[in-house]
Every structure is written in structure tokens, then in C-alpha cells.
Amino acid sequence: MSTPDRIRPVVEPVLAHLGFVVDDITVTPAGKRRVVRVAVDRDIPAEGDIVATVPSLTLDEISAATHAIIGALDDTDVMGESAYVLEVTSPGVGRPLTSPAHFRHNVGRLVVLTTDSGKVTARIDRAGETALVARVLGPPERIVEMPYAAIRKALVQVEFDRPDADEPAVAEPDTDATEKE
Questions:
Q1: Domain 93-181: which CATH number of 1.10.3470, 2.40.30, 1.20.120, 2.30.30
Q2: Cβ-count burial of 96 within 10 angstroms (0-12 exposed, 13-18 middle, 19+ buried)?
Q3: Mind listing the pLDDT tens digit for each residue in 130-174?
Q4: 158-165, long-range: CB < 8 A, 24+ apart
Q5: Which residues of 47-74 are buried (b: 16+ CB within 10 A; e: fewer)?
Q6: Largest CB tally within 10 Å, which of 47, 83, 92, 104?
Q7: How far apart are CA 15 and CA 111, in angstroms?
């Protein structure tokens, strides 16, 4: 069993208590130490559609997660006797969206979606368990429903002048413009 696989069951319960989930864990050698990177995100319901932007974690929340993870790791021998450096982050915009949970955490955000039909830039309006509804930027602007299985690559785009993230997205797909594979 790999070190990240041994760390995950140790830190998941303490993060769940804070309302967070583990997105990713990596352990990298760095001289005589190891760098343990734990990406955490806000916990969201596992079922149903997400139609509003999930707030990003604050620095205070990352700090609370860091303290909880340190405590959990120090209370076990999962890291052994070797020194390690802990880095706790939220998933960055450079991370590809590869699971339904990733899309569900990014409702309201602008993404570039690559399918077998090509690339589109769209804003995710709704994300469910198997598909998303997005507003494809024009021309022509249109609303599409896209199953996750049809998406080959998805990346969040950085926006400095993003529309109000507190407004829930309510777009319904246009049945004529629905992209399915």
C-alpha cells in the first residue's frame, strides 16, 4: 500500500469533521525529508444537482485543515520516523476536471471542454451525477447538456471579472443544441 493510500484513512475523518474532503494526496521525496501535499475541498452532497457556486476555501479554513491533518498524522505512525513537510492546499485552477465531483465543485465557473467534436468555452450552470448543463459562449451562445463520458478534457479558466457567484444558475438545456455522444 502506497503512503498516500495509508494517509487517506487517517486524515479523512478529521477533515470530514470540518466539512472538508480529501481531493488528492501526493508524497514526494525531498532530500532527507518527504513533502506531503494534501489538496482539500469543501464537502458537497454526493447526490443531486449542484446549481450554485461552491465557495472556495478561505485561508482560515486551510489553516484549520492543516492543524487537523498535523494532529492526525502525529497521532499515528503512518509517516514513520522520517521527517516530512506538510503542504495543505485547495485544488488549483490548473488541475484538470476528471470526476463528477470536480465538475460539481466548479458550477458557475468558466471552463474549456474538449470533446470528440472539438473545444468549447462554457460556464457550468448545473452539475449532476452523470452530466452537466453549461452555457456555451457564442457565437451562437447556447445551453447544452453534456454527459461526463463525452468530455475528454476540462480545464477551469481564470476570470478576473467573474459574474456574481452568488446567483444560482437556472439554465435549462435547449433540446435542439444538446450535445451527446
A1: 2.30.30
A2: exposed
A3: 999 999 997 889 999 999 999 999 999 988 876 654 444 444 444
A4: 158/93, 159/109, 159/110, 162/108, 162/109, 162/110, 163/108, 165/53, 165/55, 165/108
A5: eebbbebbeebeeebbebbbebbeebbe
A6: 104
A7: 28
